[in-house]
Amino acid sequence: MNKKDELLYDVRIAERNIKDGSLSKKDYEKHLDNLSDVEDKGEILVIEEDEINPEIELDDQVEEEESS
């Protein structure tokens, strides 16, 4: 598949391409059906947020600046 075709089926702009007639809904669905299943190649990503209280952090910075 060349670069132009890749962009035609790009999930981010496929709906626009269907609306403007560059791509038919039938061709898009056929493309999706022909994609290989790569679920087993995925990895679980766990993002943990630090519990930071911005007010406490600001108070600490002010105290440090005042003591300098």
In terms of topology, how is this protein built?
Blueprint: H1 3-9, H2 14-19, H3 25-34, H4 54-67
Task: Characterise the protein shown here.
There is one protein chain. By secondary structure, the protein is mostly helical. The chain has a domain at 1-35. The chain has 4 helices and no strands. The protein has helices spanning 3-9, 14-19, 25-34, 54-67.
Give, in order, the helices and strands: HHHH
Rg for CA atoms: 25 Å
Strand content: under 5%
**Main beta-sheet annotation:** none
- Secondary-structure content class: mainly alpha
Q: What overall geometry do the principal axes of the alpha carbons give? A: elongated
Average pLDDT confidence is 83
Number of strands: 0
Number of helices: 4
Share of helical residues: 40-55%
Low-confidence stretches: none
Q: How far is the N terminus from the C terminus?
A: 63 Å
Descriptors:
single chain, 68 residues, mainly alpha, 4 helices, 54% helix
Q: What's a concise summary of this model?
A:
Helix content is 54%, strand content 0%. The chain is mostly helical and 68 residues long.
